[in-house]
Write a structure and sequence with these properties.
Blueprint lengths: L7 H11 L16 H19 L3 H7 L2 E3 L4 E3 L2 H12 L18 H14 L1 H6 L2 H11 L2 H12 L3 E5 L15 E4 L5 E11 L9 E9 L9 E7 L1 E3 L6 E4 L2 E6 L10 E6 L5 E5 L4
Parallel strand pairs: 3-6, 4-6
Antiparallel strand pairs: 1-2, 4-5, 5-11, 5-12, 6-7, 7-12, 8-9, 10-11
Helix pairs in contact: 2-5, 7-8
Bound molecules: flavin-adenine dinucleotide.
The site of flavin-adenine dinucleotide (FAD) has 11 residues, from β3 and β5.
Length: 284
């Protein structure tokens, strides 16, 4: 028996007796998912969580990640990778991916009921699988070329990070000092240091797209002067997604935490030794 038992009776009570979700399920934009389908998904996720996902929770937390300072690579225990793969191979990522790219539209309440079980059984799986939701950001806000990056992120199951925090720029995110300089080919070179970056690296995926806040050269002070850049770990062919050379964004340290040790919380360096090439999201 695993450490986790999902309380499906309680979830069903909240969704249907309390929130009356059957009023929206099976109708309009949610026409593909009626109450029976939603319950079927919840039952399947309960089974997956109590078995495949929960299986590596204790070992993942005890062993944590391994960090190779010479390469900046982070590895997770094999047992955790097996649990993560069970989630991805079960196609649960479709709940977060853009509908046009193979995603599935369900009400946020049902999405969170499913997430509640993943987070209870093995929270780092939910956290590492954020690439699909980040693809949604690139797909909605991106240029046509960046929508193609979103497609590659989903099709090739790439990871993602959000890089806001810097030393001395946490709550006061507008104090960030990372800098972006435009290049003749339209790309940007970003330099700076980011701290506490969740999933900064892991051997769960072939590539990671970092969503990084930086100030364009000449940009004003505070949050208004910040822009969001997409910076891949590996450069890639924009049509096929085939990987090219390593980009200049590296993990320089992994934080020691009291728990959730299999989720890498990283210090990242951008552009110190080689350019960190990025794309300005939405060209704005
Ligand atoms: C496990 C973990 C994962 C994280 N993952 C990410 C990530 O993926 N990406 C990312 O960008 N960041 C991430 N963070 C960083 C997180 O968002 C920051 O820790 C947060 O923004 C706070 O910044 P700080 O730690 O520098 O604290 P500070 O900003 O230094 O704040 C310290 C304390 O001072 C208080 N304080 C700050 N300003 C004021 C004020 N003006 N008035 C009153 N009180 C104030 C705060 O409430 C807090 O109690 C992560 C952090 C952790 C711990």
């Amino acid at each position: 028996m695993s450490h986790y038992t999902a309380n499906l009776r309680d979830i069903e009570f909240c969704l249907f007796d309390l929130l009356g979700r059957e009023k929206v399920l099976g109708t309009s934009v949610y026409s593909d998912v009626d109450r029976d389908t939603a319950m079927g998904m919840l039952e399947e996720m309960k089974r997956l969580c109590e078995n495949d996902l929960a299986a590596s929770f204790i070992e993942g937390d005890r062993l944590g990640t391994t960090f190779d300072k010479s390469t900046g690579d982070v590895t997770v225990p094999a047992s955790f990778k097996k649990s993560y793969d069970a989630y991805v191979n079960g196609e649960w990522w479709r709940l977060d991916a853009p509908v046009d790219l193979g995603g599935m539209k369900i009400p946020p309440s049902v999405r969170w009921a499913i997430a509640e079980m993943v987070l209870g059984s093995n929270p780092a799986i939910h956290i590492y699988a954020s690439g699909y939701a980040f693809a949604q950001v690139a797909y909605v806000l991106g240029t046509p070329e960046q929508k193609q990056i979103a497609k590659l992120m989903v099709d090739r199951h790439w990871g993602a990070t959000m890089q806001l925090t810097e030393p001395d720029a946490g709550s006061d995110v507008g104090a960030g000092r990372s800098k972006a300089v435009q290049q003749a080919d339209g790309t940007w070179h970003i330099t700076g240091t980011k701290r506490f970056i969740t999933s900064g690296d892991a051997d769960l995926y072939e590539n990671i797209v970092h969503f990084v806040l930086a100030r364009r050269e000449g940009g004003g002070p505070g949050t208004k002067g910040l822009s969001l850049f997409l910076i891949p770990k590996f450069m890639f062919d924009h049509k096929t997604g085939d990987l090219g050379k390593r980009n200049g964004v590296y993990v320089t340290n992994v934080e020691h935490k009291m728990g959730l040790n299999v989720s890498s919380t990283c210090e990242m360096n951008l552009g110190e030794h080689e350019p960190a090439v990025g794309y300005l999201l939405g060209d704005v």
